[in-house]
Fold these 4 entries.
Entry 1:
Amino acid sequence: MQGSLFPELDDCQKNIQLTVAEIKNLGLVRSEKNLQKLLELYDEIDDIDLKREIVSSIGRQKNDKIIFDFIKNHVYNCGFMDLVYQMYRTCLYKARANAEFEKLGAEIKNHFNNEVLNKMYEYFSYKKSRGGKKKRKIKYSKPILLRGNNVETLNKLEENSVQLIFTSPPYYNAKIYSNYHSYQDYLADMKKSLKACHRVLEDGRFIIVNVSPVISKRPGREFESIRYPIHFDFHNLLTGAGFYFVDEIQWIKPESSVKNRNGGYQQTHMPLSYKPNCINESILVYRKNAPFLLDKNIAMYDKTFANDENFDSSNCWYIAPTANKNHPAVFPKELCRRILKYYSFRGDVVLDPFAGSGTFGAVALEMERIPILCEQNEFYCDLINKENVYVQL
């Protein structure tokens, strides 16, 4: 290639010898010479990581005319969305002083109609308009028990007044306290509850839902049971309520503690009859939509709130289930401890909208959080508040 910066090297060697750090350093020095070098490197190098840093470094330069032409000529045919994101990022920052970049950025966003570009625009607009450190406000200082349907009782709480929600919704027609006419009725009720949760959860904080598939009982030997993918359907319910997916943690139980499903296969060893024992439940981790990074939430707390050095490094948590004579499906205390440890701070207000026997609230109190529990079963409400710990709104 004419005018190559490195005529003694072929393209393959250049990709090996150049590093992201070297390209970044080239971009930090704003000069016409470096800009021309970066433009040439963009044409010569194929490695996507290097190319991405080249685009970013071009955006740091000061000749807006050349940068504008570069983006306009390459953004629609560069072949990789990672490169589009870097070009769009340049448009966002350059638009502060140059309306042409603002117009080009809008065209790029509309052309690709991409979720990452939309979120970039949302974050950048918030940062430009609001800035400043967010102050910590705790709106409740005592444990609260809300008796009744959570769709109604959560209306008693202020908006953005809760820092964490952790719950296990009733499993569709799997327990005596969970009885719905149809699966669609169940999902409709869960959608209402999640929308009520969204209103009270602080912007940017986490809602964590423990769910697993449920299998219906067979009405007779000649009928097939139905297995409901509740954990899959909850994704649409959560995103529809205004949350976005962050992680899925697998709660792994000892196999001896779960119902045996492979007896039929053990007897016949016939293909198609295999059914594995279900030793896991899904812990779905979602965050309330907010136009800022988690850093903004964390910045409200000083370093004295940090956890100890022990932590779970994988998304598989091996925890034995817990039995309780008063409730058929209770949280293990250890599961509550880990959720509270990793997703809340001391002094935070934490909510369980389907409290059951109240295990989450009890552990929250032990860990110096302020629990709010919702429960519509009067027997469980009395069980939760047998020592009159909770204020009732």
Entry 2:
Amino acid sequence: MKKKKNKASAASVNGRLVSKPIQRCFPIFMLPTFIAFCIGFVWPFVQGIYLSLCKFTTPKNATFVGVANYLTALQDSGFRYSFGYTTIFAIVSILSINVLAFIVAYFLTQNIKGANIFRTVFFMPNLIGGIVLGYIWSMIFDGILQRYGTFLLAETKYGFWGLVILMCWQQVGYMMIIYIAGLQSIPEDMMEAAKIDGATKMQTLFKITIPNVMSSITICVFLTLTNSFKLFDQNLALTGGMPVKFGEGGSMVNTTEMLALNIYSTFYTGANSRGIAQAKAVLFFVLVAILALAQLKFTREKEVQQ
């Protein structure tokens, strides 16, 4: 007993001796990262909020105008349309991506032959850039639709479902990896107990499997939610916001233009529109932050503690 106590006390002493230098040097190691974080994120974020209250062509010649940019942004029919369009797209893509990713992950954890090869194949599209994917899929869709005498940018519905298919093809593999990790973390004794109790596969799926992978569902829904709202490069390459229709007051509205692309287009419309675009960007940030935090709170409440 004395030997064990001596070993424990020696270990605690060594732990304190090691931790003290780390605690003293902690600010030194953190300082470069903190400075980089302030320069790369905090300062541009604060400056962006200030510029959203200004009329400017460059940050050095900004003129303060108050909330006028926000009022103009909210009155913009194109911005309001993009908000509704992005919301519908986000709902459809979140459901599609997560359902497909979970189904693929579920079957690839059933000890099938070549599971690792299938995982690699499904994950590979995530490695391709969004601009490249957009141009590739635009050619694929046009090649299919031309057989029926139409093309991708002829109607809004073609562009919408084209974006949904592209997003699913790109992101299902990434979400699949997260779901596989969650499925493999389910305790084996729990699954065996369900079999012994005579639970069917569907009962096991909905009563044991899904509740135990809620942490993976939380992560995947968060990622697909933020990615759907922030979608830009795929939207730019695939449809560019086209086709165009006339909105309120005869204004032109790009019917497949999502929020990020609308902000980008507004910024380069003219020198006087940059403050409006910055106000839209701030509203966009607030919207995504609120939705993401609400989703995290909702899904975390349903997680099962193992």
Entry 3:
Amino acid sequence: MKYQIAVIKGDGIGPEIVSEAMEVLTRAGERFGHTFCFEEVLAGGCSIDAYGEPLTEHTVQVCKGADAVLLGAVGGPKWDAVPTEKRPEKALLGLRSALGLFANIRPAMLYPILSDACPLRKEIIGEGFDLVV
């Protein structure tokens, strides 16, 4: 199968991580008979630098036309002084809205061996936790 993937490498460590994820997808595709066509677009701080806004209509359209979106971290101290409506994080909200996404799933797990490193009181964490927010 052939899949079109919109790639938003993002800012900070995002480009490094997403580049490696693309390599993993490519290798998995080779092994299991899939082809991934990557189209890179900008969102977040790098989009602010290039276009003056965190999310362009072009990026939204590429993401809408793709089979999946591979998204790296956006934002960083460089854009802390940017007005609220132009912050890199606004790209995430814009993408979620444009793509009809509503859930931001965050798994949290505390292994008992690491309980001493947890800032929560022992009576709250018990033997650890495994939950999804």
Entry 4:
Amino acid sequence: MTASIVISGPPAVGKTTVAKGLAAEFGLDYLSGGDVLKEMAAEEGFEPSGDDWWDTKQGMQFLSRREENPEFDKRLDERLAKLYEFGTMVITSYTLPWLVRGGIKIWLDGSHTSSTKRMQSRDNMTPEEAYEVTKRRFDRNRSLYKNLYGFDFGGDKSVFDIIIDTDDLGAQQVIGKAAREVRALL
């Protein structure tokens, strides 16, 4: 396979797990847009570490800085778009599906309740904390991308080749379904 795959969806829907599974299935490289953004945060003097860094005080400070200065996200998206166009990658990104052409674009859909449960077990949070974090992340990202690019994150799914409802499915089931649907597009 020479085309890239980009996976998007709300926070804690399983993007990373599915992306890594598809990368292994198709012999592609995996890249997390969030990891590249953490590299950029480190360049700005932040100390990002761990998957839950975004939910820390410092992670929220970086998000506030991103909201004030869209150059972080624009630079991130430019980097990811170049890698995506090169091919042979599976990339997780909130924004890339609206910004690139070609390849295969997957939206992982899921209820807020389901995302809350995933985050709760993944990050050892109370149900209330996980609910607030996933809601705050989704709402702030949606606002950020609407202001920055004009698209409706989570609302406009017209750019996607594949949409998978992850509710009531385990990780392997989602990976299997995504792999079958990718194969059907090849």
